[in-house]
Write a structure and sequence with these properties.
Length: 172
């Protein structure tokens, strides 16, 4: 009687178990370990003039710590601003009313996310309210283009309304 048959069956069984375990790990990683039963969230809105590369599902962070995700992005047909719905974990329900929101980028060319900066107001944002203070995404390509085509000097529109700097006279 040959032992090659049982060894082969064991190897195939072990391979299948490893494959199933890998699929399970992949499923957990793709859902951020929530299994569809994540923490309860509440919505906040924020209005931006420029989203950059922000996408639904992007993280919302305070001090680099994730507290939620971007739920939806729509265009306001009247003001033509992007309205972003933030799904904030209900554990962080006491955000001050003067909290500000900025679109930031992780690293030089990383993914965009929303960074919140809590204020000092005694009133808290309620579910569905809009964050009043927002900063749009910085378009790095546009900034580089402005700098390159203005010869390294600020463009005329950047100095609008400012008086020219006084020139120093050489001392004799």
């Amino acid at each position: 009687m040959s032992l090659r048959g049982p060894r082969l069956e064991f190897a195939v069984g072990a391979f299948l178990l490893l494959a199933l375990a890998s699929l399970l790990v992949l499923a957990i990683a793709s859902t951020n370990g929530k299994w569809g039963f994540g923490h309860a969230t509440y919505p906040l809105k924020a209005r931006f003039t420029n989203l950059g590369q922000l996408r639904p599902g992007a993280p919302v962070k305070i001090g680099g710590v994730g507290i939620g995700n971007v739920g939806a992005i729509i265009l306001d047909p009247v003001k033509l601003d992007a309205v972003v719905t933030l799904d904030i974990d209900s554990r962080y329900k006491d955000l001050p009313a003067d909290t500000s929101a900025s679109i930031l980028t992780g690293g030089l060319l990383g993914d965009s996310y929303i960074g919140l900066q809590p204020g000092g107001d005694t009133q808290n944002l309620k579910p569905g309210e809009e964050i009043a203070f927002t900063t749009p995404a910085v378009d790095l390509i546009q900034m580089v283009g402005k700098y390159m085509f203005s010869g390294g000097k600020p463009a005329a529109s950047d100095n609008a309304g400012q008086s020219p700097a006084p020139t120093e006279k050489p001392t004799p």
